[in-house]
Amino acid sequence: MKIDTQGDSLIQPVASLANKEQASTQSNKAELSNKLGMLADVYYKNSVKAPTPTYDRPLSMSSNDEVVTKTADEALDGIALATVHLYTPSGDLSQSVEQMTKQYKSIMSELNEQQPQLANKDWGISIAESGELQVTGSLTEDERTLVEQTLNNNDEFVAAANEFKSSYLKNIDMEVRGWARYDVNEENFSQIFDLKDMLDSSKADGEFKSAWGYESNWMKLHDNISSQLSSKASKY
User: Which residue among 3, 32, 202, 232 is least packed, with the fewest CB closer than 10 Å?
Assistant: First the structure.
């Protein structure tokens, strides 16, 4: 009897091709992971204040056995863009604080004229989930009402404050170390960041203004943000 071996000869190439495709998929995943790690290492080695050399929060990526939905180039571009907006003076976060600073001086002058005792009291400014500015600290009800009305009547200040919040939350999702080590979200943002403390701490002196042309010192700003995060936010 003659045995037909044609079926076996067809099965073998198909199985071989499937094994090659599976191996290729695994290789692509490994290459993507290596590229992301290399970029983060290069950036933080060149930073003024280098964080710990291990990942504190993993990148969030969707994948399965067939497709890695975010390509290496897209992931690297996202990290680079988030880094610019969070940590550089020309980024959205620093620029939003610069806009707040320009309004803050006139706001405080107006408040001190009406209630001089405010200068000697411990109070702060937070951003509610609604976007309105709220006063924290030990003020009387009348003082609190006055301060909140004055703050929220300044549209430019309110807009800049909300830009600071949205810029931070949007870009921190892509950042992989640095401030991304801390759990900050829409719900707890008001409990972590005190805008008054941030603005008071990051004022630029005359020498800095002359050299850089900014009302706010972004180096002091970054120090203050890091300090508020470490003292009030939990880590992942």
Answer: 3
**Where does the pLDDT of residue 70 fall: very low under 50, low under 70, confident under 90, or very high at 90 and above?**
low
**What pTM was estimated for this model as a whole?**
0.70
Q: Can you tell me the distance from the alpha carbon of 112 to that of 109, in angstroms, rounded to the nearest whole number?
A: 5
The kind and range of the H/E element at 164 are helix 155-172
SS3 content of the chain, % helix, strand, coil (to 5): 65, 5, 30
CA angle (156 as vertex; 148, 186 as ends), nearest 5: 65
Place of tokens 């180039």: 73
For CA atoms 230, 98, 213, 197, the dihedral sign is negative
- The conformational region for residue 217 under phi > 0 = left, psi -120 to 50 = alpha, else beta, is beta
Distances (CA, A) of 79 to 33, 53, 176: 14, 17, 8
For residue 157, give the H/E element and its range. Answer: helix 155-172
Average pLDDT over residues 223-235: 97
Average pLDDT value over all residues in the chain: 80
Reported as a pLDDT band with limits 50, 70 and 90, residue 100 is: very high
Residue 155: partners with Cβ closer than 8 Å, 6 or more residues away: none
Helix (H) or strand (E) holding 133: strand 133-137
